[in-house]
Write a structure and sequence with these properties.
With 590 residues, the chain is an all-beta fold. The protein is 2% helix and 41% strand. The chain has 1 helix and 47 strands. Strands 1-9-8-3-4-5 form a 6-stranded mixed beta sheet, with no helix packed on it. Strand 43 and strand 44 form a beta hairpin. The longest helix is centred in the last third of the chain and has 14 residues. The radius of gyration is 40 Å and the shape is elongated.
Length: 590
């Protein structure tokens, strides 16, 4: 290799700078607020030799180990973080929009560079939402979100969930208005209007209350069955907003109003029809129901099993508990599975056990408790018990049993392993998680937690491998970045296909790629102090097929040209500059 030759390398980068650039390609800021250009460099104990920032080729700040120089108009608006090279810019104005470049010389002497486009957006004013009170049965109700700017994006949520168009929900005026048709009680919720642009976000909320009811009342009796000469309570309930008021009648005679009617000591004179009437003064609705209290309700007894369902696991054990103590030898007891044959029938003369349960049950004839073990999923169902006492009192009860298998060996399987950023989608087999248009930030890891009422298990984490596209597409924002190691910093010129352009500086911006932008780009770096220059070429190619991606993508091209030219700029920098200068003393003039 010729020792007098200095190589200049260019790096082609596409959407979102898949590799190479140390800051985001495009940054959005809000007028009057702050933004930070954050680099991807991790802090180390070694200080950078120098960090420099510029906008549209104009100097902002340069910081070395011994000194920091700031352009006066940025003196009170910037903060440089020398550990990473990141820059904070405060109190943004529209004039701050532009192309920002950073150049970092670490202690190793290998120059690090990056570029980003800042676009300053207006601040969103505080929006308002009108939310009128409504009554169930109304034909429609309308929500209006007003922020004074129809260009801002507006998205609606209902109790935190996205609100989407349907046969009942219509969006008007670019989501500024939503119309809810056929109002019902389930529409009661918090409705939120989210207003945003590329850099700012504001929210307005309203609580919609839909008044309804009363529904047809229901009457509950306690105790049930009733016991003669004891207290009995009839309770009337109806779903209503606001809550309903209640009145009672017995045999068409008014009783004391209220949700309950209490009979202190029950006798035959209290038997007959009780009418409960529910009223909602706001909706104007009045609804009644009739409850009959008769002699059949006066039999003593109570349910033998508690209400509710039981939960078991395969291979486990379950105990069905009654609330009785069966001590009379004249008692008969039958335990069965609903709509199937009896599990066990007990009488003082003996017991009869179904063959399918002969080795799986144990019956306590005193309490009526039944133990069932070696549970299977097939044991799920409704279980009933019937008891006859020596006084011929009939007692019964029922409860449900749900048996579940233990969750184990959870696996997560992707439907493909060859993924390309913005061009691929992935989903799991079975219970599916689908990711559309994957990006590098979707690598994971992903874990699947499977559970049922008796157990849970978590699959091994899955990490995806996602590649990046390598060519520039039509219509994309593209940056060509030319980087040269030089002290003092070099000046740059550009040519396309051998024809000089008017672009000067390290960044060549193509606002929207089209067919006239392909070809060979040449960047020339010149050190005006040493009169040394170097040039680098790179060919920009376009994709043959245009992609109709659902998400707009930003492409960037970086051309990294490393030119070693020098003149001392400080104690530490001078060491690096002298070492580089010695290498250049044997170069032939260009």
């Amino acid at each position: 290799m010729n020792p007098n030759f200095i190589s200049i390398s260019l790096l082609l980068l596409t959407t979102d700078l898949c590799f190479g650039n140390i800051i985001d390609v495009r940054v959005y800021g809000t007028h009057g607020k702050n933004t930070t250009f954050t680099t991807t460099i991790k802090p180390t104990s070694d200080l950078f030799v120098s960090v420099s920032w510029a906008v549209n080729g104009s100097f902002i700040i340069t910081s070395t180990i011994s000194n920091t120089i700031v352009e006066p108009k940025y003196a009170d608006r910037t903060t440089l973080f020398r550990e990473t090279g990141s820059l904070e810019l405060r109190n943004l104005t529209n004039e701050d929009s532009g192309v920002y470049t950073v150049t970092i010389i670490p202690a190793s002497g290998h120059l690090i560079s990056g570029a980003a486009v800042l676009e300053v957006q207006p601040k969103i004013p505080t929006p308002t939402v009108t939310c009128p009170p409504s009554t169930e049965g109304m034909s429609e109700v309308t929500f209006l979100c007003d922020d004074g700017d129809t260009s801002n994006a507006k998205q609606w949520t209902r109790d935190g969930q996205p609100l989407l168009p349907s046969d009942r929900i219509a969006f008007l005026e670019n989501n500024r208005i939503i119309m809810l048709k056929g109002v019902n009680r389930t529409d009661t919720a918090e409705y939120r209007c989210n207003v945003s642009n590329l850099s700012d976000h504001e929210v307005a909320t309203c609580q919609l209350t839909v008044y309804y009811g009363p529904d047809t009342p229901t009457v509950q009796q306690h105790p049930n069955p009733a016991v003669e000469e004891e207290q009995l309570t009839l309770s009337c309930a109806s779903d209503s907003l606001p809550p309903a008021t209640f009145t009672w009648e017995f045999q068409r005679r008014p009783l004391v109003p209220g949700p309950q009617h209490v009979i202190a000591e029950l006798d035959e004179d209290h038997l007959g029809n009780y009418t409960c009437t529910a009223r909602n003064d706001l909706t104007g609705l009045v609804v009644s129901t009739v409850y009959t209290l008769n002699a059949l309700a006066l039999c003593p007894g109570q349910a033998a099993l508690g209400a509710g369902s039981l939960t078991g696991v395969t291979g486990g054990r379950m105990t069905f508990e009654t609330n009785l103590s069966l001590t009379d030898q004249n008692t008969t007891l039958s335990f069965g599975l609903f709509n199937l044959n009896n599990i066990v029938l007990y009488t003082p003369a003996g017991s009869l056990v179904s063959p399918a349960y002969r080795k799986r049950i144990s019956l306590n004839t005193t309490s009526g408790w039944l133990d069932l073990w070696d549970l299977t999923v097939g044991d799920s169902g409704a279980y009933t018990v019937d008891i006859t006492t020596h006084t011929d009192q009939q007692l019964n009860g029922s409860t449900g049993l749900n048996v579940y298998e233990r969750v184990s060996s959870v696996t997560v399987t992707p439907n493909t392993t060859e993924l390309l950023e913005f061009s691929s989608s992935i989903g799991d087999i079975g219970t599916t998680l689908t990711i559309l248009n994957v990006t590098r930030y979707d690598r994971g890891p992903y874990t699947c937690n499977v559970s049922n009422p008796v157990s849970n298990d978590v699959g091994r984490p899955l990490t995806l491998t996602i590649g990046c596209p390598s060519l520039v597409e039509f219509g994309e924002v593209t940056l060509l970045y030319c980087s040269a190691m030089s002290v003092p910093p070099p000046s740059y010129t550009w040519s396309l296909n051998g024809v000089h352009t008017t672009v000067q500086g390290p960044v060549y911006v193509i606002a929207s790629v089209n067919s006239s932008d392909y070809g060979k780009y040449t960047c020339t770096a010149v050190n005006t102090l040493t009169d040394l220059s170097q040039a680098a070429d790179h060919v920009v190619s376009l994709k043959e097929n245009r992609c109709s991606a659902a998400i707009a993508k930003t492409a960037a091209v970086m051309a990294a040209c490393f030119v070693a030219v020098a003149a001392g700029v400080g104690v530490v920098v001078g060491v690096i500059a002298r070492r580089v200068y010695k290498k250049l003393t044997h170069l032939q003039p260009i």
